[in-house]
Write a structure and sequence with these properties.
Structural class: alpha/beta
Largest sheet: 7 strands, mixed
Radius of gyration: 19 Å
Helix content: 25-40%
Strand content: 15-25%
Strand order of the largest sheet: 8-9-7-10-13-12-11
Number of strands: 13
């Protein structure tokens, strides 16, 4: 059996990566739309309702418009935009967070894929809250760096311009007013009362991401050691293919360094627990185009179709 798939917004980085992942799959038939009609509402509506699965790799307003075209009750929508991630009528596309997340993805017609930074944050913060390690009123900080592929076509062109300004040579902090678009889901999905203080940096490498939550002992809801936190997170994610808690090391890693791009091209996420019993840093490493976007979207599609979640993905 071949599943008919339409990628609305195939020209962007997320859409292209999804399309690439399907090239070696014989169970997928891509519904193509001609270049001159790719923004035509009538043609997009036709393609959406002909599909078994439609991926929305679009700006928020275009994604909202695309959902309004849906008439076929058998067509499933997977949205990679910010538009629907905090709506209760949509499944949140991070099945490893819990059985309830998995079941909703399995049964819902509409699935919203988490943001890339939010995926890293959620992989740490959600179980910390669920396990009672931090309270709902926790005042968390999240520091993160990402490759420039997540910044959109304009930024990619700026970074890859041979005559670019020297400012692109160094990491650049952004979202300075603390109004980043991922903050809403970072607060709502784990059930926090406050948005985290979020410091994202875009850097001069193509893809990859580190997302760190630093914690003082005074911020914790219980008396717990760094070893016990590692054990609880390891138990939480045991037997998961897409989230792996890495061994606890004295240096954090073998050599004391953690590169943001060492999972480039991969579709899973690694969690590192580091520090000591007074000051703890927990870091998620992922590909912003993998588990942070396209890989997560395809994982959700596989689950919605009753397939092995790992099908067609790079683990």
């Amino acid at each position: 059996m071949k599943y008919k798939v339409f990628i609305d917004g195939k020209e962007g980085t997320t859409g292209l990566r999804i399309y690439e992942r399907f090239q070696n799959r014989d169970d997928i038939e891509i519904i193509n739309i001609s270049e001159e009609l790719r923004k035509d509402p009538a043609e997009r509506k036709k393609c959406i309702n002909q599909s078994d699965i439609t991926f929305l790799c679009l700006p928020d307003q275009a994604a909202i418009e695309a959902v309004s075209f849906l008439e076929n009750e058998h067509t499933k929508i997977i949205d990679a935009s910010t538009a629907h991630r905090t709506l209760s009528t949509w499944a949140y596309g991070f099945p490893e967070l819990g059985e309830d997340f998995l079941k909703k993805i399995q049964t819902n017609q509409l699935v919203a894929v988490p943001g890339c930074y939010a995926s890293g944050f959620m992989s740490i913060a959600y179980p910390l809250k669920k396990l009672g390690i931090v309270n709902s009123d926790a005042l968390l900080t999240c520091n993160a760096i990402s490759g420039y592929s997540g910044a959109g076509k304009k930024a990619i062109a700026q970074y890859e311009d041979d005559n670019r300004d020297s400012k692109y040579d160094a990491p650049r902090l952004y979202a300075l007013p603390q109004m980043h678009k991922h903050l809403k889901e970072m607060k709502l999905i784990p059930g926090f009362l406050n948005e985290p203080l979020f410091n994202p940096y875009v850097c001069d490498f193509y893809e990859g991401m580190l997302v760190t939550i630093p914690l003082h002992k005074a911020q914790l809801a219980c008396d717990i050691t760094v070893k016990e936190i590692h054990e609880k997170l390891s138990k939480y994610y045991e037997n998961q293919d897409f989230v792996k808690v890495m061994p606890l090391k004295d240096l954090g890693t073998e050599d004391g360094f953690l590169s943001a791009n060492h999972l480039a091209g991969k579709d899973y996420l690694e969690i590192y627990v580091c520090g000591n019993d007074n000051r703890i840093c927990i870091t998620a490493c992922l590909d912003n185009l993998g588990k942070g976007a396209s890989g997560a979207a395809i994982e959700c599609m596989n689950i919605m179709l009753g397939l092995d979640p790992k099908t067609g993905l790079n683990l």
